[in-house]
From TrEMBL:
Signal peptide range in chain numbering: none
Enzyme class: ligase
PROSITE patterns xrefs: GATB
One of the GO BP terms on file: translation
Domain Asn/Gln amidotransferase residues, every copy: 351-497
Task of the protein: Allows the formation of correctly charged Asn-tRNA(Asn) or Gln-tRNA(Gln) through the transamidation of misacylated Asp-tRNA(Asn) or Glu-tRNA(Gln) in organisms which lack either or both of asparaginyl-tRNA or glutaminyl-tRNA synthetases. The reaction takes place in the presence of glutamine and ATP through an activated phospho-Asp-tRNA(Asn) or phospho-Glu-tRNA(Gln).
PANTHER family on file: GLUTAMYL-TRNA GLN AMIDOTRANSFERASE SUBUNIT B MITOCHONDRIAL AND PROKARYOTIC PET112-RELATED (PTHR11659), GLUTAMYL-TRNA(GLN) AMIDOTRANSFERASE SUBUNIT B, MITOCHONDRIAL (PTHR11659:SF0)
Family: Belongs to the GatB/GatE family. GatB subfamily.
Lineage: Bacteria, Bacillati, Actinomycetota, Actinomycetes, Micrococcales
Presence of the UniProt keyword Nucleotide-binding in the record: yes
Keywords, sorted A to Z: ATP-binding, Ligase, Nucleotide-binding, Protein biosynthesis, Transferase
Gene behind the chain: gatB
Protein name: Aspartyl/glutamyl-tRNA(Asn/Gln) amidotransferase subunit B
Length: 499
């Protein structure tokens, strides 16, 4: 695939004003699917979690999942939306191999929630209000696996496999209004917005929000208009971007790509585009369909959803804190400075730090792991930190450090094993033999060997030059592959010098 010509980002912003829009799909973690009793699970054998209605088999009838409706209302309320007194499902007609019945049950002109806004915090603490147009319920489609092509893409694939396990999984799609005024911070705002949505759905407990699993996916819309022009430009929609980092990169790339085309007098095609994580570019998908192309009509097999006022107020009363309020509370509870807390927030690991602390780690230890060591490994792998390890496992690792079983250096080796899938921290310690040597006999033997190799050091220590012990400590640590307790080694050296 030939790379498109792009313009310098700063130059693009001199000539054009970016206008953004985001469609975030949130898979709900209900026990069953949106319109059937089939299990809503992840990782099962392909085509095992199915019911006739998921495939659109003749005679099958959909039944609305009540819990999914409750979750959708809660999410709408958390986004500051009004909840419709009556909303209706519709059929969105299109053919694709992962859509067994050739239409998707969605909501069109009567969504469950509408007209809201969410406050998004940027890296320097700037707050931006993002307007929400609607949040509507729908079902997910199945999943295609392309075999033989590059990077799992359909281009060049020998054949494709379809797994209908995901077909019918409950979704809420959150659609923003056009976002104007982000300017140079447009890419950053995109990532921060998706991070905020993720924090909201996790706090509500309605989704696992694992982007690497597709629980939360973002379609990023970008258009440009010449400076001073009021009419919006033609937009592109980059589909199913699956990490905050990728959202930021995709928005930036589309701004640069579109600017290069427009500056040369070209036109932008309204289309979907695919994000390529490996090369950092987008490629053309299909011409973007308008609503008329989907031939929406009311779903004839489902009645309107009419939630009672009492239910809406009950769900409103159960809402967790708004994200901004929660951040202020956690910062105070954890005792972090502004800079320390900003490191956590900007890293997109606020939830992970909170869960690690809840699992038994101190705030300081949790912040250390999630803002230094885990991001280091994530950057090397080109992944999000939240994808690598579970917070409970990080807390377990820290407990081994606190107990003296591991030094910080050894703990980093264990973390690498955790990321590689070698097991729990304790299993990795046992398998690799990484526990700190605390047996004084073994330490004294290593100290004596080091002193024999450097006989002048002991005399220096006896003369009061205690810092000379560092040479012996280093030799012992090297001999014992970093598994000695350095503090205990120092104590034993000083005891030997006092004899």
């Amino acid at each position: 695939m030939m790379a498109a010509k792009i313009m310098d980002f700063d130059r693009a912003l001199e000539l054009f004003e970016p206008v953004l829009g985001f469609e975030v799909h949130v898979e709900l973690n209900t026990a069953t699917k949106m319109f059937s009793a089939a299990p809503n699970s992840f990782g099962r054998e392909p085509n095992t979690d199915l019911a006739p209605v998921d495939l659109g088999l003749p005679g099958s009838m959909p039944v609305v999942n009540e819990q999914a409706v409750r979750y959708s209302i809660s999410l709408g309320l958390a986004l500051g939306c009004s909840i419709a007194e009556s909303s209706r499902f519709a059929r969105k007609n299109y053919f694709y191999p992962d859509l067994g019945k050739n239409y998707q049950i969605s909501q069109y002109d009567e969504p469950i929630a509408y007209e809201g806004e969410v406050e998004v915090e940027l890296e320097d603490g700037t707050l931006v209000t993002v307007p929400i147009e609607r949040a509507h319920m729908e079902e997910d489609a199945g999943k295609l696996t392309h075999v033989g092509g590059a990077a799992g893409r359909i281009q060049g694939a020998e054949y494709s496999l379809v797994d209908y396990n995901r077909a019918g999984v409950p979704l809420v799609e959150i659609v923003t209004k056009p976002i104007i005024g982000a300017e140079h911070r447009a890419p950053e705002l995109g990532a921060a917005y998706v991070r905020t949505i993720r924090d909201i759905v996790l706090s509500l407990g309605i989704s696992d929000a694992r982007m690497e699993r597709g629980n939360l996916r973002c379609d990023a819309n970008v258009s440009l208009r010449p400076r001073g022009q009021q009419k919006l430009g033609t937009r592109t929609e980059t589909k199913n971007v699956n990490s905050m980092r990728s959202v930021q990169r995709a928005v930036r790339y589309e701004i640069q790509r579109q600017a290069a085309i427009l500056a040369e007098g070209g036109t932008i095609t309204q289309e979907t585009r695919h994000w390529h994580e490996d090369t950092g570019v987008t490629s053309a998908g299909r011409p973007k369909s308008d609503a008329d192309d989907y031939r929406y009509f009311p779903e004839p097999d489902l009645l309107p959803v009419v939630p009672s006022a009492e239910l809406v107020e009950q769900l409103r009363a159960a809402l967790p804190e708004p994200p901004a309020v929660r951040r202020r509370r956690l910062k105070t509870e954890w005792g972090f400075t502004d800079l320390e807390f900003q490191d956590v927030a900007n890293g997109g690991v606020l939830v992970e730090v909170e869960q690690t602390i809840a699992a038994g780690a101190t705030p300081t230890a949790a912040r250390k792991w999630w803002t230094t060591e885990i991001p280091r490994l994530a950057n090397a792998a080109g992944r999000e930190a939240s994808e690598l390890v579970e917070p409970s496992a990080v807390a377990e690792l820290q407990k081994l450090v606190d107990a003296g079983t591991l030094t910080d250096k050894l703990a980093r080796q264990v973390l690498e094993g955790m990321v590689a899938g070698e097991g729990t921290p304790q299993q990795i310690v046992d398998a690799r033999g990484l526990a700190v040597v605390s047996d004084d006999g073994a330490l004294i033997a290593a100290i004596d060997e080091a002193l024999a190799a450097q006989p002048d050091v002991l005399a220096k220590i006896k003369d009061g030059k205690v810092q000379a012990a560092g040479a012996i400590i280093g030799a012992v640590m090297k001999a014992m592959r970093g598994q000695a307790d350095a503090a205990r080694v120092r104590e034993l050296i000083l005891e030997r010098a006092a004899e």
